[in-house]
Write a structure and sequence with these properties.
By secondary structure, this protein is mostly helical. It is built from seven helices and two strands. Strands 1-2 form a two-stranded antiparallel ribbon. The protein is globular, with a radius of gyration of 18 Å.
């Protein structure tokens, strides 16, 4: 992603991100939504910090998150970074897909319908999304307790 993907021409954070096929798992274009207040605040602070540090060199076409070399992250580098962050946070078994899995299971556990979750995940089939519901033992226990 580039800075311009999350910031509009006036410098404000976008509410909706249009992700091109080259940016997404499965190579399908989709939308992402920047509606979580904590995420918006962190991203805004990060971009403001970058703008201050880079001054006149601040470039909307620059990678949003830069590697140590100042370039965009390769998929492999991003996976390694996420693994280190999971390890540092004490998240056992955390991998690059963990955030997607958490997002889907969290939505399903809150009662969001599978079709909406499927669209948000970019799945071509609701059957794929249903796997996240089947894999959630906490949800199954809660359902069983309601009977």
């Amino acid at each position: 992603m580039r800075i311009k993907d999350v910031v509009d021409d006036s410098g404000r954070l976008r509410d909706e991100l249009q992700l091109s096929a080259s940016m997404t798992k499965g190579g399908k274009p989709r939308f992402a939504y920047l509606t979580n207040p904590a995420v918006r605040t962190a991203l805004k602070d990060y971009i403001e910090d970058r703008r201050e540090r880079e001054g006149i060199l601040f470039n909307l076409d620059a990678p949003l998150f830069r590697s140590q070399k100042g370039n965009h992250f390769s998929p492999n580098t991003m996976q390694q970074l996420l693994r280190r962050l999971h390890d540092r946070a004490g998240i056992v078994g955390g991998r690059s897909h963990s955030g997607r899995r958490w997002f889907a299971t969290e939505l399903i556990s809150k009662g969001i319908d599978l079709k909406a979750v499927s669209v948000l995940m970019g799945h071509s089939s609701v059957a794929m999304t249903a796997r996240y519901a089947e894999d959630n033992p906490q949800r199954l226990r809660r359902i069983a307790a309601e009977v």
